[in-house]
Amino acid sequence: MATAMANDSTLKNITGTILLAGAGKMGGAMLTGWLAQGLDPRRVAVIEPHLSPEISALAAKGVALNPDVTSAGTVETLVVAVKPQLFREAGAKLKPYVSAGTSVVSIMAGTTITSLQEVCGGAVVRAMPNTPAAIGRGITVAVAASNVSDKQRAVADALLRATGSVEWVDDESLMDAVTAVSGSGPAYVFLLAEELARAGIEAGLPEVLATRLARETVAGAGELLHRSELASSTLRQNVTSPGGTTAAALAVLMGDPGLRDLMIRAIAAATKRSKELAK
Ligand SMILES: NC(=O)C1=CN([C@@H]2O[C@H](COP(=O)(O)OP(=O)(O)OC[C@H]3O[C@@H](n4cnc5c(N)ncnc54)[C@H](O)[C@@H]3O)[C@@H](O)[C@H]2O)C=CC1
Ligand SMILES: O=C(O)[C@@H]1CCC=N1
């Protein structure tokens, strides 16, 4: 696994344009992170057919909204955050913004480096973030094409790191499983909160109380996992008194079939879908 090369001043020292295509949930979260980390808003341009009030308001700070190719300046990095299904159409319109020195950082699920090179050109970094990026607690996995320079990789690293931590891999084929585990992963955790609440209601709790208990339990356990040095299995064992209530519940969850089987099937389905999106 390659080490990160960005440092604290990487975003502040950017001289070209960072062009974001698609300022929806993920693109918008990344943009917020860049500006919070000191990227000059005048270095940022956004291509977005449906501008939200929040993104529109950034124009007052100097962010260029839907600039044409000539007014966008020299695009140092194009960040593509549109839906993969729209990429062929959107990418063709983005290509004129890409010049010899442009790096193209894509966060689209499934879309391969080869497709990105075909449609947009440029030096491609394929990345997979997740929605905790919105609070600076995302995790992103990135893989660079062989023509990405050290400097381009450092800028990509800084742009991705503005929303959380970054892991670089050398093998692009890992990205489908990465997408299944960490890209989609927050949804599984939110589902856990939903189902824990539902089961609490089933067990007789008032809905408001069950919902609050489930939400705070998932959030608190997540924060403990984040802050603790202990393995998740140890944290689990620390809750589990021999012959107690947790052991009774875990006998169900860890039974056969249990959560393990369900999770393997879920991750396999997401991995398969990521591969399909490449086509
Ligand atoms: N939502 C998530 O948890 C994650 C999403 N991703 C990837 O991020 C990408 C964006 O996903 P979301 O932010 O969830 O979707 P979104 O629907 O919130 O954002 C996509 C944005 O692209 C805009 N758009 C549509 N056509 C465009 C065009 N031709 N040019 C520029 N912008 C255009 C849309 O108006 C929208 O604002 C997808 O490729 C997805 O695979 C990656 C990791 C996690
Ligand atoms: O569901 C999706 O396809 C995107 C990629 C990872 C999370 N959301």
UniProtKB/TrEMBL annotation:
InterPro entries: 6-PGluconate_DH-like_C_sf, NAD(P)-bd_dom_sf, P5C_Rdtase_cat_N, P5CR_dimer, Pyrroline-COOH_reductase. Its EC number is 1.5.1.2. PANTHER family: PYRROLINE-5-CARBOXYLATE REDUCTASE, PYRROLINE-5-CARBOXYLATE REDUCTASE 3. It is an enzyme of class 1 (oxidoreductase). Keywords: Amino-acid biosynthesis, Cytoplasm, NADP, Oxidoreductase, Proline biosynthesis. This is Pyrroline-5-carboxylate reductase. It catalyses: L-proline + NADP(+) = (S)-1-pyrroline-5-carboxylate + NADPH + 2 H(+); L-proline + NAD(+) = (S)-1-pyrroline-5-carboxylate + NADH + 2 H(+). Belongs to the pyrroline-5-carboxylate reductase family. Residues 21-110 form the Pyrroline-5-carboxylate reductase catalytic N-terminal domain. It is found in: Cytoplasm. It comes from Bradyrhizobium iriomotense. Pfam families: F420_oxidored (PF03807), P5CR_dimer (PF14748). Pathway: Amino-acid biosynthesis; L-proline biosynthesis; L-proline from L-glutamate 5-semialdehyde: step 1/1. NCBIfam families: proC.
